[in-house]
Amino acid sequence: MFARPPFSKAADDIDLLVINEGEETFLEIVSLERRTPAALGTLRGVAVRDGAGWRETPARPLANLDSLASPYALNLVQHGGLGVLQTYRGCPFTCSFCEWGTMESPKRVRAVDHLTQEFEAIAGHDVYAALLVDAGLNLNRNAFLNLRRAAEESSFFERHGLICEVYPAAVRQEHLDFLATVSNAYVGIGLQSFDNAVLAHVDRTYDERRFDETFAKLDAVASLAVEIILGLPGDNPETFRRNFERARRLPCALRVYHCVVLPSGLMVRSPPEHRLDYDPVSLKMTSCTGWSEAALAAECRFLTRQASLQGGRSGEFFWTFPPPR
């Protein structure tokens, strides 16, 4: 990112970049008596300025997730609201708009006893639900099996809700059975688009028949929200509007996200013909193949109006819509 304009101008303002995971690296950074360039350059898993470029130090081995301290167990998290839960890192897919797929394949998972302790600590903070921040409930079977067993041992989801994402093509009966045991399950289905021609630009696919079958099964055990992205390269206002109307016909909530150009996503993985232009601060797409700046801005205004008319919400990066009445 900092080799590209306009970010390259800011490179001299950066002391160092942490490569990959940061918990153990950050602990070492704040433990240094003097954080000089020379001292920072002795750490593993960082990049430091070296003339006009960057010098990466030897890689730091990825941590055992069970060795990382829990902010809930340390009572560092305010009480109430949502609890945040992670059972693995990374993603088996490499969708180009996303940074998850650039991480190591998600083989490391949290153990059952560690998750059980985490459930107990989260429950002690008077939360109403756990937000699963994994790439998906159903994208790492070992992690899912450990989560399910820990949930059974702690009875956490008998008293608390669950908010999670699923990848629709990988939903199995075991996931449906688990969701049926949760007191209040809210599931996001990340489609991004109903159009395979659009999805081909970002390394995704869509199967209409399988989606309809999976949607019906999920709808029987959870509250659902379909998710699509506004401003994907290769999309256009007409196709996006059809996708929006298709999503609004489903008996579920809808979340629309504004496409952003992430540093390890579209910023470096998008071909030149996508002609990306984006805000250098927010990283929101402003124009690309299929979207002029005026057309994308007009569709943002359309979504804001529709969210207001339909009882939804608008934010800087998203629009949410309740299930159709």
Structure in words:
The protein is α/β, with parallel strands linked by helices. The protein contains 11 helices and 13 strands. The protein has helices spanning 23-31, 37-40, 112-123, 141-154, 156-159, 173-181, 196-199, 208-219, 237-248, 266-269, 293-309; strands at residues 16-18, 46-50, 53-56, 82-85, 129-132, 161-166, 185-192, 223-230, 253-258, 277-278, 285-287, 313-314, 318-321. The chain has an 8-stranded mixed sheet with strand order 4-5-6-7-8-9-13-12. Strands 1-2-3 form a 3-stranded antiparallel sheet, with no helix packed on it. Helix 9 links the parallel strand 8 (223-230) and strand 9 (253-258). The longest helix has 17 residues, at 293-309. The chain is globular, with a radius of gyration of 21 Å.
Quick tags:
325 residues; alpha/beta; 8-stranded mixed β-sheet; 3-stranded antiparallel β-sheet; 31% helix; 18% strand; globular
Name the helix and strand elements from N-terminus to C-terminus, one letter apiece. Answer: EHHEEEHEHHEHEHHEHEHEEHEE
Secondary structure class reads alpha/beta
> How much helical structure, as a percent, in the residues?
25-40%
What is the beta-strand fraction? 15-25%
Say how many strands there are: 13
Placed side by side, the strands forming the largest sheet appear as 4-5-6-7-8-9-13-12
On the 0 to 100 scale, the average pLDDT is 94
Shape label? globular
Cα gyration radius (Å): 21 Å
Q: Count the helices. How many?
A: 11
Largest sheet, strands/sense/barrel: 8 strands, mixed
Q: Which spans have pLDDT < 50 for at least 5 consecutive residues?
A: none
Distance between the termini: 44 Å
